[in-house]
Fold this protein.
Amino acid sequence: MENTSATIVNKGLASEIADIKVRQALVLDYSDWLLSRVDRDAMIDELGEMREDDEKNLRLIENMEVQHGVKAQPKPAALRHVELAREILIDPRYSFLEKVAEFGLLKTMQNTCGMLVARSMQIADPDVRLALGGFAAVNADNMKHMKWITNMTNVIGTRQITGSEEEPDLWGRVREMFTTAAGAMGAGVAEPLEDLPITSVLAMDHRKVDALFVETLAASSYETAREHFESIFRDLSVHAAAEEDVFYRALQDRGVSDLILHAYDEHGDMKRKLEEIRSMPGTFEEFKRQVKLLQQMVSHHVREEEDRVFDSAKMTFSENELVVLCRRFMQEKKRVQDDMRDGRFLANAGSRTTTGTSLGARSPSSH
């Protein structure tokens, strides 16, 4: 994809994801309100399951925003929509049915926009498709939820209009039917990254950079290759900083020394090569030659890390500790991305050290 087009696609996706994220928080508020007011066991079970899905999906959306690495602010129209929907939720002049209907509209908006993101991803570069792949799971859940909300609206509306109840087990049968159908569509639903061991998420980052190298070296123009390289520079810089501060530091605290010192050395070599390529004024061919050298350095490092360092981590930490480290890594990665956007990254990077506190004592946001 040409560089101007890639920039437009990435910015457009980032803007849409920001809108989806701000609406998703309101979806959770509506779920809480409804859970406190429905009186049917089947509806309570359904809303509870829906809320669990939506909370998981909010985390997935936040994860994908970080993995994408391009952040935007919600559009004014999306913020106004959220404001109006929140007013409906708290305004006693609106009936219970009208509030359930508004919940359905919110879900419809989330489903429509999620589907648009999924379709737009198909013309994005491979690294973007890797970063945003979790939308398949989000969209499958939203489609399932829309069916449930439609039937919930019918039950509540019938009661409000007629004062009567429909067949007692109808809701349960409807729920079972749509759960089965949605399950077929959403097989392989993704987990929020914070629920995975850190080794899995680090490997995802590695695959994304692999894709970026392919895109850079396949570029037909110097300008396009440069833009792809900027994505490599950004992703590798953020990944390395967060990995050193969380993963390497935790391993050192547990006495894994030689492997980590070697990994630090390789990170240092890659950082110097990144800066060298970024500032080089040479020809397109020379640029690609240097990028190929960097790709070889990164591939060598990744092979060693995914073999020796990951094995050492799995022997050193429990499964739960690896998940805790992943949560810290994701928080640190987001913080470094924010620092890079705000121009603070280089100053912070210069002050990083290789000493730290223990896994149990260090909070996710402390430095």
